[in-house]
Amino acid sequence: MQANFDHCAALVREADRDHYLAGLFAPPEQRDALFALYAFNAEIARVRDVVHEALPGEMRLQWWREVLSGERDGEAAAHPVAAALLEVIKRYRFVSAPLLELIDARIFDLYDEPMATIGELELYGIRTQSPIVAIASGILSNGNTPPELFTLDASVACTIAAVLSRLGRHTARGQLYLPLDVLERHRVASENVFAGQASAPLFAALAEIRKLARDHLVAAQTKLKSAPPEIFPALLPVALVGPTLRRMERADYEPFKFEPLALWRRQWLLWRAARDPTRIFRV
Questions:
Q1: pLDDT digits (tens, 9 = 90+) for 205-252
Q2: Whether this model's pTM surpasses 0.70
Q3: Per-domain residue ranges for the chain?
Q4: CB distance 163 to 114 below 8 Å
Q5: Can you tell me the distance from the alpha carbon of 234 to that of 156, in angstroms, rounded to the nearest whole number?
Q6: 94, exposed or middle or buried, with CB in 10 Å at 0-12, 13-18, 19+?
Q7: Which of 217, 213, 198 is nearest to 258 (CA)?
Q8: CB-CB contact of 83 with 4 (8 Å)
Q9: What is the pLDDT of residues 53-83, one digit of tens each?
Q10: What is 112-283's CATH number?
């Protein structure tokens, strides 16, 4: 089993460096479980990147549903990420329902239907990110998962930052995660977004979406006061949201060619947040 956990750690280090670095701030005895969870998340999140059509993507997601439902035990045992994840679920007595909901929410990624409303974007963030934060928190608290109030706002803020950071990548392949209701309010035509046309109305729409992310960070900050300290490593990636949003407000900001924070800076921000958790939700 340790070989499976080692495989997960290597996968997370390659595919999701922020969660890998955050995991290093967790107690050593809990890192294997965290990396198994994060490896699963990476596998699900990158399905659109490894398939060229929606149907093969649906089949991959269905396979994971069946693994979590106990219908693929033989195949799961031979798959290092699946085997490690199932071991974590068994060890901590977690239920699979939140991860099944996460898989269902990721179906959106396989198709080119636009995100219709702010509410849909918030729900997408909750369903795709909150289970990961909640289960990671449960690992860090030895199976005692925290109330959802510690995970929902943080999950939405992270999702919005990711959507804005990957605008160029998404539009290049025909996806639109920017809510249509926001674009319409600012009179931005979706075809202009797909054409990569930056404009004053588009910048105004992006500013509105950034404000929504900040509102969720503020809401999460107020709840941090009653959060158990042992779960902070699960929340560390949220510390990158505020700096990412601020980077988008520089004079040279190009929404379709956004350069993410350098790795050394992300490492430094995570280190500072690990030493001072009040920085996690700093806007």
A1: 999 999 999 999 999 888 777 778 889 999 999 999 999 999 999 999
A2: yes
A3: 1-95, 112-283
A4: no
A5: 15
A6: buried
A7: 198
A8: yes
A9: 899 999 999 999 999 998 988 888 999 999 9
A10: 1.10.600.10
